[in-house]
UniProtKB/TrEMBL annotation:
Function in brief: Involved in protein export. Participates in an early event of protein translocation.
Organism the protein comes from: Tamlana crocina
Keyword Transferase assigned: no
Major subcellular site: membrane
Protein name per Swiss-Prot or TrEMBL: Protein-export membrane protein SecG
InterPro entries: SecG (IPR004692)
Family label: Belongs to the SecG family.
Entry keywords, A to Z: Cell membrane, Membrane, Protein transport, Translocation, Transmembrane, Transmembrane helix, Transport
Region Disordered: start-end pairs: 82-125
Biased composition (Polar residues): 92-115
Domain of life of the source: Bacteria
Pfam families: SecG
Ranges of biased composition (kind: Acidic residues): 116-125
Recorded topology in the membrane: Multi-pass membrane protein
């Protein structure tokens, strides 16, 4: 397994976790942070601490995702060969195959004859 593949798997996992953390948050206070409050008297961890945790985890996962993406660029396998565009190379010649000959269309009857159109009387005389 190459280093790039490991980075790619890590990027997918971190992106999935980031989506989950963002979806759990609710800006109106009705998300996971409000479900930890027990009727106003009992609080498991507290609403403020849950909101802080979700906020910090969002920023941490976003930063980690950005760093993994930048590091994966370093891990891409690059061969020693240079592959340049043939459009930029003035010495490169490209050959295109010739199109196949069209079938003979003279056997088909024409839809209108040109003689009929010229024999018609002119209306402006």
């Amino acid at each position: 397994m190459s280093t790039f593949t490991i980075f790619l798997i890590l990027i997918v996992v971190v992106a999935f976790l980031l989506v989950v953390v963002v979806m759990v948050q609710n800006p109106k206070g009705g998300g996971l942070s409000s479900s930890f409050g027990g009727g106003g008297t009992q609080q498991l961890g507290g609403v403020k601490k849950t909101t802080d945790f979700l906020d910090k985890s969002t920023w941490t996962l976003a930063t980690l995702l950005l760093v993994l993406i930048l590091l994966s660029n370093v891990a891409i396998n690059r061969s020693s060969e240079t592959v340049d565009s043939k459009a930029l190379d003035p010495d490169a010649t490209t050959t295109q195959p010739l199109p196949e000959a069209l079938p003979n269309t003279q056997d088909a009857a024409p839809a209108t004859s040109t003689e009929e159109a010229t024999d018609a009387p002119a209306e402006n005389e």
